[in-house]
Amino acid sequence: MGAPENKELMKSICDELARGNSRPFIDSMADDFCWTVTGTTKWSRTYEGKQAVLSELLGPLVEQLATKYTNVADRLIAEDDYVVVECRGSVMTKSGKPYNNTYCWVCRFSDGKLRQLTEYMDTELVARTFGDVL
User: Residue 98 — φ and ψ, nearest 5°?
Assistant: First the structure.
């Protein structure tokens, strides 16, 4: 798959995330998918493998949420195997705190699967909202 196909795949994933449906995003992850959370928070590191992403990153995060997480893509840029997404997430935590962050995701695709995601965001907001949950 080339850049146009990867961009279209990511757009369809983002369209569903905007509706609060994360299933296409999870289904697109390859078994060896790696997600890097940048910064120096307790969450910041590379989660290696789809199972690690689900159990060590997404699982603990979802446990903290009171409402359905949505994420709206504002811009997608594609080149070769990469799609860069500027997006805005929104959710309310069980502790009553709103968590509305802005992200830049640098995603790498291969054979129609998401292989890598590097996430840039407001890490101070992450620390203030989720603290030492891990």
Answer: -75, 140
